[in-house]
Amino acid sequence: MNLKELSPEFKEITGLESNTQVFKTYLAGDWISTKELEEVVSPIDLTTFAKVPRLPYEMVDSTLSRISEKGKWEIRDLPGEKRLRIFHEMASLLDRFRNDLVEVLVIGNGKTRAAANGEVNASIERLIRADLDVRKLYGEYVPGDWSSESLETEAIVRREPLGVVLAITPFNYPLFDVVNKFVYSTVAGNAILIKPASKTPVPAILFARIAELAGFPKHALGVLTIPGKDMDRVVSDKRIGVISFTGSTETGERVIRAGGVKQYVMELGGGDSAIVLDDADPISTGQKLVTSITSYSGQRCDSIKFIFSEPGVYEKLRQTLLEELAKIKVGDPREDVNMGPIIDKGTVDELEFSVKDAQEKGAKIIFGGKRVKENYVEPTLIEASKEVVKSLYLYQKEVFLSVAVLVKVNNVDEAISLSNSRRYGLDASVFGEDINKIRKAIRLLEVGAVYINDFPRHGIGYFPFGGRKDSGLGREGIGYTIEHVTAYKTVVYNYKGKGVWEYM
């Protein structure tokens, strides 16, 4: 599969090899190519559509030196209003090069054109709304008057950038996640190294070119195209002050073990629960749940994976779910479909294992459950009893595609208990009108966000998101991640014996 011809502004960072686009990568002001290349495969037909450099560690090390010695000061010394001006120019360039970015997201990720456009829109808005992050950058004044020990002193508490942020991004939102981590890291005055997912590195490279065109400080940005398995040496580097990671819980734990003492923002495994109360509207609830289950083929950390329904609405909800799932078309995302391919065949293998596991333990496959071809799969709905659901592989792991388990519960207490018993705690939804039950769920659910009468959607991060338990550390969101990429510095002024506190 071939990409369409990109805009002239990207010509100098690409070349052709056997009719395949070969991209350079950006390392602190230089566009780099290497002899050893990594193939990038399109999930649409599993053929190579691009190649990117495979960086040796020596290049990574020299890039880290330039970023930590020059880049972190270039961005820190750039006035904040100029940073915002650059962000706005980058937003304009994203819109200008929309067709290139959409093409790469469709071919490289298997996204429908509508979903790809949505990701570009979110990226543009995130850059424009960087001004809202700034509200959390201001410091505080602390009077010393309230302690006899500190009398005749006062302090200011300021927030300072930590220097270099390493942003490790996932495959599923390879443009937006790069933009989001870039914005909150650099608006605070940090330099940034981006390690994109090996399956989807091209959007990060195009974004680096856009940053360069917009005038972003050249030594304050790098894109590391190296395999994840080679990252231990990088994450442990003491020149890196913060690691912002989005990915699986297992990989996140490995990053923390290798990284050592640093600041971390970790958005890890999810797979959310929905609690449906007796007085919920089964039609609108079912429609919203199917949208969540099937959006980007379920390859979202905030996708609904479990539906715990009270008995009064259960049958009507079940019927609606089946009717709405039957409307979903699966196929080539360049055509008129709702669901495209899964990023790789291995994840579909895991679904087949999960389906077999569920059947062996007494659950029923009431919709889908089958591989359409290689890495295409039907949306899947499994019906399980509350006694069986905890034993399912799907309950214990996050299977990253369009699959959900429907469970009838006696009451909201059972629903809350089943939701909380999972190792993950990213988001939850509650559908219904009984305010007492809703308030109880809000209070007791062990998650980072609760959505009332809607399915979880992190969007641009206007509302903060992030998980508890094995779903992560910290929060991402406009104005909320700043505290994780900056450090407090307290400055104490001593006026003792200077007469400042004496009454005239």
Write the layout of secondary structure elements.
Blueprint: E1 14-17, E2 20-23, E3 25-27, E4 30-32, E5 37-41, E6 48-53, H1 57-76, H2 80-96, H3 98-109, H4 113-128, H5 130-133, E7 140-143, E8 153-161, E9 164-168, H6 176-186, E10 191-195, H7 202-214, E11 221-223, H8 232-235, E12 242-246, H9 249-259, E13 263-267, E14 272-276, H10 282-294, E15 304-309, H11 311-325, H12 345-360, E16 364-367, E17 371-373, E18 376-377, E19 380-384, H13 393-396, E20 403-408, H14 412-420, E21 424-425, E22 427-431, H15 435-444, E23 449-452, E24 468-469, E25 472-473, E26 486-494
Give the key terms.
15 helices, 504 residues, 6-stranded mixed sheet, alpha/beta
With helices defined by DSSP (H or I, 4 residues minimum), what is the helix count?
A: 15
Distance between the termini: 83 Å
**In what range is the share of β-strand residues?**
15-25%
Biggest sheet record: 7 strands, mixed
Category from helices, strands and their pairing: alpha/beta
Radius of gyration using CA atoms only: 25 Å
Helix proportion range: 25-40%
- Average pLDDT metric: 96
Shape by Cα distribution: globular
Outline the low-pLDDT stretches.
none
**Strands across the major sheet, in which order?**
16-19-20-15-14-22-23
Number of strands: 26
